[in-house]
Fold:
Amino acid sequence: MPSYEIRLNIPADRLQAYYRDGVQTVLAQASDGRRVQFPVASLRPFVSHGGVSGCFVLLTDDDNKLIEIRRKSF
Structure:
């Protein structure tokens, strides 16, 4: 199963703008340099008062459709 490691730092005001403006997807660069796009709604479990911040692993199927996003623990 393909996976992508990404680091995000999206402040709360930017996330609010995404939702207000109807943004559907987030574009991020994986640690290996590949660009990945995934639904902004998949970040909801990770939103805090400060926004979304941290390292995440995106798991996809063989067609690169998002299956799961996990916060990476160190």
Summary: The longest strand covers residues 51-60. Residues 3-71 form a domain with the OB fold (Dihydrolipoamide Acetyltransferase, E2P) fold (CATH 2.40.50). The mean pLDDT is 94.
